[in-house]
Amino acid sequence: xxxxxxxxxxxxxxxxxxxxxxxxxxxxxxxxxxxxxxxxxxxxxxxxxxxxxxxxxxxxxxxxxxxxxxxxxxxxxxxxxxxxxxxxxxxxxxxxxxxxxxxxxxxxxxxxxxxxxxxxxxxxxxxxxxxxxxxxxxxxxxxxxxxxxxxxxxxxxxxxxxxxxxxxxxxxxxxxxxxxxxxxxxxxxxxxxxxxxxxxxxx
Length: 203
Ligand SMILES: C[S@@+](CC[C@H](N)C(=O)[O-])C[C@H]1O[C@@H](n2cnc3c(N)ncnc32)[C@H](O)[C@@H]1O
Hints:
Blueprint: H1 6-12, H2 14-24, H3 29-35, E1 46-50, H4 58-63, E2 67-72, H5 75-85, E3 89-91, E4 104-110, H6 118-131, E5 132-143, H7 151-159, H8 168-176, E6 179-189, E7 192-201
Parallel strand pairs: 1-2, 1-4, 2-3, 4-5
Antiparallel strand pairs: 5-7, 6-7
Helix pairs in contact: 1-2
The protein binds S-adenosylmethionine (SAM).
């Protein structure tokens, strides 16, 4: 694989990806902090992590007494996830999660959608709708452009393997086509800015 950016490097190596994420998010503490305030984190819930990467959230989800299943298309990441956390992971494209033939109480997608075109986002969201229970919840955290003056963030976003970073309005429009948006807010873990969305099935 030709490595021409920091994003390519982290995609090629699960270990480098895991270390860089642990460093940036303080051992994923930044994401866990936001998940703790989400109504989908509930005892006994079944949780599907769509684009689970190296599976870093599996122990956190299990610690919250929920069952966990993670899917991703990067086999290197999945092998690393299985070796680190156990057999909770499988190679499945987010555009085909209905092939699981299961429904879940809670869905997570951290950093997936900025890798996808609008058409693929819609495909994933449609599939996510079909595997989410009627009263289920969907938590999405994804990239937004760096705020003006945040040159470091802008440089790093430029290096990102995902080339579809959208602003809050654009994310809201896409997600709102398929789900009711309960909460939408921006947050930052320097040098990155993020959008967080709490979604539910439409009535
Ligand atoms: C920025 S990483 C985030 C990984 C993980 N959620 C985390 O927070 O560490 C994006 C992930 O999306 C996965 N991905 C991209 N396109 C995908 C698709 N169509 N189906 C499933 N996973 C996909 C990549 O393989 C990668 O693991």
